[in-house]
Amino acid sequence: MQSYIKSEVFVDLENALDGAKGILKLVRPNWEESGIKTQVFSNGITNKMFGFHYKNNKGEIILVRVNGNGTEIFLDREEEVKSFSLLRQYGCAPSLYCVFNNGLCYEFIKGITLTCQTVRLPSVYKLLAGELARVHSIPTKADPPPKPTAFPLMRKFLAIAFASDSIIDGGLTVARKNEDQVLRKEVDELESCLTNLNSPIVFCHNDILLHNVIYNEHAEKISFIDYEYAGFNYQAYDIGNHFCEFAGIDDVDYNLYPGKDFQLKWLRHYLHAWYQYNFPDGCTDTSQMDDKVDILYKQVNKFALASHLSWGIWALVQAKYSTIDFDYKEYSKLRLDEYHRRKDDFLAL
């Protein structure tokens, strides 16, 4: 049952703060303007985000997210709301207050976002692995079961990124055609390799970058935010994607990609939680668990390649349409370079 406000309001990205305040009035009409305190969040590279609380009451903070221009071209906003609602149903998301034409308004989750250092702390990564196992355990009632989104989404990004550059001749330059063909071949070949790994299809976040993880030290709790790309996908993709994000965003350093010893510890915690959520008897045989951790380690690193390829192509779309001040072309190059650098080693595992 829908419990949020649905509005046809469109917020101008160039005047996003005033528009966000207008959305706030819909969900908290009793808040007097003179008592409203505002915080501008700058972590996102796609959207604009604002936080509001009333007077000195920081116990209730309302977030308003205004979608970046053009994001509706490659994102299904209705599916995002469905994912948000599903996650909320299973206690994995905050309250959703309002869905407007180009954004959302929802409850603020207390805590801090992760850094390249804190994501490695045992007190943090054990909680994160457990929470991800919980998300991955959300059931589907669909018949037939949903298909994984990874490779269809890559092809969707490609179609948008390499749509005709010229209205006059309706065609792409030779260089752009070649780039398109090379990337399509990579997608086809990688899909052929990875689909044979039999990674389970589970409900995934699909974008667990450091800024999308909230750590509440006092409550000893990890929460994931931003569900734009959430949906059913390969289990190993979601984990591999998270490991890629150890490199950070602002100053990306792929030397920070976690090594084997760390990954094995992380994956062991994940699998213990996964079995607790999905199988009543768990997995108590140590040797059996060792084998399962090793299998998942190989799957995860191979699917990390899919993460690099997907976000590298995604960034080409953003470079074409986004008005956010971020060097998407350089980010695309970083991801695709890392894909090629790691490809042979990871596929050989």
Taking the alpha carbons of the first and last residues, their distance comes to 46 Å
The count of β-strands is: 11
Low-confidence stretches: none
How would you characterize the largest beta sheet? 6 strands, mixed
Q: Classify the secondary structure makeup into a structural class.
A: alpha+beta
Strand and helix order: EHEEEHEEEHHHEEEEHHHH
Q: DSSP strand (E) fraction? A: 15-25%
Overall geometry: globular
Question: Radius of gyration in whole Å, from Cα?
Answer: 21 Å
Mean pLDDT: 92
Query: Can you count the helices?
Result: 9
Across the major sheet, the strand order is 1-5-6-4-3-2
The share of residues in helices is 40-55%
What's the structural blueprint in terms of helices and strands?
Elements: E1 5-6, H1 16-27, E2 36-41, E3 48-54, E4 57-66, H2 77-89, E5 96-100, E6 103-107, E7 112-113, H3 122-136, H4 150-161, H5 174-194, E8 201-204, E9 213-216, E10 221-224, E11 231-234, H6 235-244, H7 260-278, H8 286-321, H9 328-347
Parallel strand pairs: 1-5
Antiparallel strand pairs: 2-3, 3-4, 4-6, 5-6, 7-9, 8-11, 9-10
